[in-house]
Please model this.
Amino acid sequence: MSKKIPHRLYLTEDQMPKQWYNLRADMKEQAAPILNPGTLQPATVEELYPVFCEKLAQQEMDHTTRYIDIPEEVQEFYKMYRPSPLIRAYNLEKALGTPAKIYFKFEGNNTSGSHKLNSAIPQAYYAKEQGLTSLTTETGAGQWGTALAEACSYYNLPLTVFMVKVSYEQKPFRKSVMQTFGADIIPSPSETTQVGRMILSKDPNTGGSLGCAISEAVEKAVTTPNCRYVLGSVLNQVLLHQSIIGLESKIAMEMLDEYPDIIIGCAGGGSNLGGLIAPFMQDKLLGKANPRIIAVEPASCPSFTRGKYAYDFCDTGKVTPLAKMYTLGSSFMPSANHAGGLRYHGMSPILSKLYDDGYMEAVAVEQTKVFEAAVFFAKQETILPAPESAHAIRAAIDEALKCKETGEAKTILFGLTGTGYFDMTAYNAYLNGSMSDYVPSDADLQRGFDQLPKIPDIQ
Ligand SMILES: *Cc1c(COP(=O)(O)O)cnc(C)c1O
Model:
């Protein structure tokens, strides 16, 4: 029996996108501007230059250029591991007995193990082009640090990574991969920065958080000559670079004569989701199509589903600009038993605005349910998914099961952002039954909300 649609569809090099798509150019209303933390006035692009490399600061503030050229050198690097395949999950469909057609875009086929390399490469490229001599960043689970270590090694840029302390202890092999690519790794919070020392003096046993690590990395960048800070999610520039995921998916689906009815992505800071949905959201904004778009987040760190849409700091030490976003408060620390990634307190301002305006939905799922879906998926499709990605799998399975009830043959597209090989401790906890679900109480969340900065709304 011949199948019309292949299991895996790869674009040719010629078909690969040569420009990123800037979703903001088609948004009816823009997200609220980021604010300078000193003046509480909208930040100017020049004010970002001490922290970010100039090209990236410009991309951060660019609300109008619809398509932005991918530098040729970056296109060449992309060709080492892209295009990523669009895969039809035939076996999963069969095992679920669903009439739905399930597609996923797999971003885990590179050494960094996730989509993060898509933005690490241009960020290191622009820094090198500007003549910077080092970069700093933070990493949580380690994927971003790994991707950036690869990119910096390629462009010969020294890199310091502040790694969230619990991950540093739980994921020693992530550290080794980063060190293989020459990065310097510091567990955060650390004694090497003023903000790290302050956080440690308040809570010496803290396991750290992304918010703390960001504060340390920013401090290191602004106090080191010719050094800048780079971030792997949340920012507008990162969503721009990640649009490569959605652009490739859309071309591939067009070749198959398909269009997704439902698009699903996991959401930590929102970069893979923002990238995957970008060209489909464009259709939605322009009235050309109306797919359902679903963000999936952990019940233990529920920024969209239980957070507040408010101005907040992007870090715990309150040194970054303020962004209006769905947030749990920059002091929020996810429970230590949460193994599934996606631990950031805030959410991309672009996605926050689109969610607030009703263009997308969000669901929160508990981690044992996520790992149940991960194991089921691994057996059907022979890919061991990252726990983060398995949030999207969970929601895709749930939607496919709804189709089974209603008999509707919907087309589902989800983002499979990474491989799970670095997360075997978490798989182990699930398999030996020691994993539990943690859902913060309203009172837990209120503590984070109480510390939100009081800022009058600026529109
Ligand atoms: C970092 C990461 C995520 C979450 O980050 P986003 O910015 O929300 O995309 C999801 N999956 C994997 C594998 C990751 O490494």
Remarks:
- Residues 114, 116, 143, 233, 266-273, 342, 386, 388-389, 417-418 surround pyridoxal-5'-phosphate (CB under 6 Å).
- The domain at 19-69+116-229 is CATH 3.40.50.1100 (Rossmann fold).
